From TrEMBL:
Enzyme Commission number, as recorded: 1.14.18.1
GO cellular component, one term: extracellular region
The protein's name in its UniProt record: tyrosinase
Superkingdom as given in the UniProt entry: Eukaryota
Gene3D superfamilies the record matches: Di-copper center containing domain from catechol oxidase, Hemocyanin, C-terminal domain
Ribosomal protein is among the record's keywords: no
Compartments in which it is found: Secreted
Requisite cofactors: Cu(2+)
GO MF term set: metal ion binding; tyrosinase activity
UniProt keyword list: Copper, Disulfide bond, Metal-binding, Monooxygenase, Oxidoreductase, Secreted
Entries under PROSITE patterns matching the protein: HEMOCYANIN_2, TYROSINASE_2
Protein family according to the UniProt entry: Belongs to the tyrosinase family.
Amino acid sequence: MLCILILQPSGRTMTLDEQTGIDILGNILESTIISPNRGYYGDLHNMGHIFISYAHDPDYRHLEQFGVMGDLATTMRDPVFYRWHSYIDDLFQLHKSRLPVYGTDKLDFPGVTVSSVAVEGQAGANTFGTHWEQSTLDLERGLDFAPRGPVLARFTHLQQDPFTYVIECNNATNNNVMGTVRIFMAPRNDEKGQAMPFKDQRLLMIELDKFTQNLRPGSNTIRRNSADSSVTVPYERTFQNQANRPGDAGSTEAAEFDFCGCGWPQHMLVPKGTAQGYPVVLFVMISNWMDDRVEQDTVGTCNDAASYCGLRDRKYPDRRSMGYPFDRVPRSGVSSLSEFLTPNMRVQNCTIRFTDTTTQRTAR
C-alpha cells in the first residue's frame, strides 16, 4: 500500500507513517510553526476560511469587510463551513486509507465478551429523547460600555433527556482486567432509507463516551450516566462566567480557566432526531486498557472532556488513534457493521425522538 510522501525544504521526502503521520499532516494543514515545509504547503485550512470570507470582494476594490467564514465566532453559521471542513477531513481520510487495516488481532480483547447493550431513559427503552430548552446568559463581560449591571440574553437550544448506558459483559479470564469502554453512534440508514454500507457509516460515527472500567472474572454490569461523558462539559463550563477568570491575560491561571471551558456542550451530546424517531445504531466496544494506556501523571483539573480536548500540557490519554476503531478502512470482507464486530463489541438499534416543546433551564 502506497504511503503519502511529504516534500521537505531540502528537496528530500518524508513518509507519513502509522505512528507520526497524522501529527505531521495536521501540522501541515493547520498549519503550525513545526510544519515540515510551511513555505511550500502554506496554511491551507485557515487561509481557506479567509479566502472564502473575501469571495464577495476578492481584490478589495469595494472595501468590503470579510464574511462570516473569517470569524471564529460566526464561521459555523455559513453552510460552506461544512463543505470546507469535509474537504479537510477528506485529506486526513486519504492518509488513513493508506495505512494498514485493523485485523481482528488489533480489535479483539481475548477473554472479554460484550453480551448486550441498552439505553435507559425518560423516552423509553433504547430511545434518546430530545427537546428545546431556554436558557439565560449574562453578556455584560462581552460588551464594551460602562458597567451598568447585568445584560441578560435568553436563547433556545437543543437539550436531551438524561439517560444511562447499560452494558452486560463477561470476563472469561481468572483475573481482574482493565478495559476501555468506547461508545459511538451512527445513522442506520442512508438518505434513501436503505441500510448504510459500513464504508460510509464508519465515517459518520460520533464518539459519545470513553472510560476505563475494571472487569471482575465472570459477568459484569456496567452502568454509565450520560452526564459523565468524556466528550462533554456541563452548561456552566460551556458558558463560563468571565468575571471569575483569574490572573492577567496570558497568565497560567487564565490559561487553565480557559482550558476548563474546552469540551463539546453536554446539551448537544445527542443529535436532534425527528418526531417519528430517527433510527441510529449504538456501538459499544471494550478494548484492552493495557494496549490503550499512556504512562503519565493525569493529576489536574478539568480532565472530564479528555476525549475531546486531551489533557492540558500532557499527551493525549489514549494510545489508540482518535476515532479508533473507525479511523481506518475495514479489513477485507467487511461490508456491514455486523461483519466488522468482534466478541468484545456489541451494537443496539436505537431511535432519537424529538419533541417540539420548550422547557426552562433550571440549575443542575
